[in-house]
Amino acid sequence: MNAPILDYAAVGVGPANMSLAALAHPVEGLRGAHLERRESFSWHPGLLLPEATLQVSLLKDLVTLVDPTSPFSFLSFLASEGRLYRFLAADFPAVLRAEFNQYLQWVAGRLPSLTFGADVHSVDFHDGAFHLRTVEQEVTARHLVLGTGLTPSVPEPFRPLLGPTVFHSGEFLLRAPEVTGRRVVVVGGGQSGAEIVRHLAAGAAPESITWVSRRSSFLPMDDSPFANDLYTPDYVRRFHALPSGHKARLLEQQRYTSDGIDLQVLQDIYRLSYRDEFIENNPGRLRFLADCAVTAVEGGPGEWKLAVESSGPDDAPAVLAADIVILSTGYAYALPDFMAPLDARLRRDGGMLVVGDDFSVAWDGPAENRIYLQNGARHSWGVADPNLSLLAWRSAVILNSMLGETRYPV
Fold first, then answer.
1. Burial class (CB within 10 angstroms; exposed 0-12, middle 13-18, buried 19+) of 143
2. CA angle, residues 136, 139, 144, in degrees to nearest 5
3. Tens of pLDDT, residues 172-219
4. Strands 32-36 and 6-11
5. Is 237:385 a contact under the CB 8 Å cutoff?
6. pTM over 0.85
7. C-alpha–C-alpha distance, residues 265 and 168, integer Å
8. Which residues, 6 or more positions from 195, have their beta carbon under 8 angstroms from its beta carbon?
9. How far is the C-alpha of 402 from the C-alpha of 372, rounded, in Å?
10. For the CA atoms of 317, 322, 324, 328, what is the dihedral angle to 10 degrees?
11. What residue ranges are annotated as transmembrane (predicted)?
12. Angle at which helices 391-403 and 15-24 pack, to 10 degrees?
């Protein structure tokens, strides 16, 4: 018998599509499938450092800001696990990322629409529906939701060298490098770089840790009330309506509301540097090179030589020697390979996908069949798009669009 045509098929099970699944769960008659190539859920496992925390409120979970009564909220998780009162008494300044990962795994185990170990290798459209193919099955759906996440950005000089001693920060815990007595260079001045520097300086014994950043300094995140207004539905709707040139200027101006470093992490690192210099009598173990760029790499796994150019007033070495290089160089969106059959049908402006006010991508197919984009429209929707802040709201907008009615107030 032919498989039924689902209302939607979502590819990728990260927080974005899990939010969609959680909000879709109570909608009677809605049929959806969420396909994930990994065998089980994990959220940035390479960066789940024990001391790392969220940079957003615990209310910005998968569902709460759209449906505070949902059984899939972070507070429901705490209550279900018998830790609500202890959590309140602990009075954490921010939610530990490891605990938020436990919450996400808890939700994943309660959503029947999620299928793991389903690697989608192609998507096509014909006969009024999208056809998604995995090794074992074909899924047919009226709508398609892309939630495959961001891919690591690796600077060109490092691309041919990736391996056990040169790797992206997203692999840090998975690689578990032996750093004792070794020279470690961390490239990239954002939050993940800061967390790794703090982790290495506090708990390991590298010979040296050098932190290199193109930025003028190691800059804190702007977490002020007016900055947080940029992460509200009202603001992102207004941003979405602006001309593309205006959007690009605002994205640059607003970058440190999301790409800056948590102030507590910076304080911890500075105190660790003070400890090394004045208490442990080990000045220079921690080195900070701002306004510097790595322009070339030579050598091999035994010793890497990094050519450094500085545009700042401080003296920076022309060449850095390293045993281990960790690239905290961010992430970018790339259309997944399985979309190749439909790629030419997607509309672009200046090379970027055109994303509508319901997060659907403009394409040349029927208007009643939509391709929705999760966490890939920063150029169109602003700095909040890759952030946890508007997960629930964006999922609600997509659900309302698919249903053709206002199931959730947005």
1. buried
2. 135
3. 999 999 999 999 999 999 999 999 999 999 987 899 999 999 999 999
4. parallel
5. no
6. yes
7. 20
8. 47, 49, 51, 52, 265
9. 10
10. 10
11. none
12. 50
Three-state SS letters, the chain: CCCCCEEEEEECCCHHHHHHHHHHCCCCCCCEEEEECCCCCCCCHHHCCCCCECCCCCCCCCCCCCCCCCCCCHHHHHHHCCCHHHHHHHCCCCCEHHHHHHHHHHHHCCCCCEEECCCCCEEEEECCEEEEECCCCEEEEEEEEECCCCEECCCHHHHHHCCCCEEEHHHHHHHCCCCCCCEEEEECCCHHHHHHHHHHHHHCCCCEEEEECCCCCCCECCCCHHHHHHHCHHHHHHHHCCCHHHHHHHHHHCHHHCCCECHHHHHHHHHHHHHHHHHCCCCCCEEEECCEEEEEEEEECCEEEEEEEECCCCCCCCEEEECEEEECCCEECCCCHHHHHHHHHECEECCEECECCCCEECECCCCCCCEEECCCCHHHHCCCCCCHHHHHHHHHHHHHHHHCCCCCCC
In degrees rounded to 5, what are phi and psi of residue 225? -60, -40
Judged against a pLDDT cut of 50, whether residue 7 lies above it is answered with: yes
Contact 364/211 with Cβ under 8 angstroms?
A: no
Cα separation, 54 vs 372, in Å, equals 26
Q: How many CB atoms lie within 10 A of CB 369?
A: 16
Give 404's contacts (C-beta < 8 A, 6+ positions apart).
none
With 90 as the cut, is the pLDDT of residue 311 above it? no
pLDDT of amino acid 1: 44
The answer for residues whose C-beta is within 8 angstroms of residue 191's C-beta and 6 or more apart is 55, 221, 259, 260, 261, 262, 265
Residue 17 β-bridge partners: none
Distance CA 24, CA 30 (A): 7
Question: Residues in the chain, how many?
Answer: 410
Please name the residue that has the structure tokens 């997509």.
Answer: 398
- Structure tokens given for 73: 């909220």
Of the chain, the end-to-end C-alpha distance in Å amounts to 39
Q: Is 64 exposed, middle or buried (0-12, 13-18, 19+ CB in 10 A)?
A: buried
Q: Which residue has the tokens 């009643």?
A: 368
Q: How many Cβ atoms sit within 10 Å of the Cβ of residue 90?
A: 9
Type of residue found at 68: P
Q: Which tokens sit at 131?
A: 């056809």
Pairing relation of β-strands 292-300 and 303-310? antiparallel
